[in-house]
Specification:
Helix content: 10-25%
Number of helices: 4
Largest sheet: 6 strands, antiparallel
Radius of gyration: 24 Å
Structural class: alpha+beta
Number of strands: 13
Oligomer: single chain
Shape: elongated
Order of helices and strands: HHEEEEEEEEEEEHHEE
Length: 253
């Protein structure tokens, strides 16, 4: 259900009133629809090692809230609310001194030193799906469960871009843009739209039958203007849509 903008403003105001008058603590998380990745780009230097098993054990073990995971031809990833762990298998004889790593605001570079020269595991020309907090990004190396390879994991700390005054939660849905051809499996929960009426009912409030005489309208005099500006910003960035009701029908702008 997508509510008209004016109804959403009113509903938010009422829920804020409910929050102030009760012992419940409520919050809203507005999540946008995922967008389709653009056309894949090929990187000649990005070639997998031969005979490497595809999936590290961490891929099956992730159960965190708001999490996703995936498997590509040369790497796997596990995502939670704050971070993405990107893992690449390397030969068993690999030492930490063989790894060269560098992070950028929207890219990472991971290079393995071999007897035949440098081998690019992750190309810095690839663009990540979101911005990376370089201070909170690091890498580690450990033995794999199969005892035949080692696993290099880059721990990327995500930067969550604010929308107006709201801190918007958004899954990356993968590590890199242009990854359609290389991704074998992508496992994320499907997002659901917030039904404000149903949410209010779960808190014991019927928004359609509120006694407005009990509402202190003075407390919303400044908040409503801020909320309107916030929602206009959200609408501009396509996080919410405005719906016009006319003749019993709804029209999406």
């Amino acid at each position: 259900m997508i509510m008209p903008l004016n109804q959403l403003l009113f509903a938010v105001a009422q829920l804020l009133l409910l929050q102030r008058a009760s012992s419940f603590t409520t919050s809203f998380i507005i999540t946008p629809h995922s967008t389709s990745p653009s056309r894949p780009t090929h990187y000649p230097n990005q070639k997998p090692f031969k005979n490497l098993p595809p999936t590290p054990s961490a891929f099956q073990k992730n159960t965190a809230l708001r999490a996703g995971k995936g498997r590509a031809k040369t790497y796997t990833w596990v995502e939670d609310r704050y971070d993405i762990g990107l893992s690449v298998k390397v030969p068993i004889q690999t030492k930490s001194s063989d790894i060269s790593f560098r992070s950028y605001p929207t890219a990472i570079s991971l290079i393995l030193s071999t007897d035949m020269g440098p081998y690019t595991l992750i190309n810095k020309q690839r663009t990540t799906r979101g911005k990376v907090n370089m201070e909170g990004t690091f890498w580690s190396i450990a033995d794999c469960d199969d005892m035949k390879h080692r696993l290099v994991t880059v721990h990327l700390e995500k930067i969550k871009p604010p929308v107006a005054e709201l801190d918007v939660e958004k899954d990356w849905g993968g590590v890199f843009k242009d990854d359609d051809e290389e991704v074998i499996e992508r496992d994320y929960d499907k997002e659901e739209e917030l039904d404000v009426n149903e949410y209010a009912k779960s808190l014991g409030v019927d928004l359609d039958n509120l006694d407005m005489n009990l509402v202190d309208k003075n407390m919303f005099s400044g908040m409503m203007n801020t909320t309107k500006e916030t929602l206009e910003d959200l609408e501009k960035k396509k996080f919410v849509r405005q719906v016009t009701q006319q003749g019993g029908k709804e029209y999406v702008d």
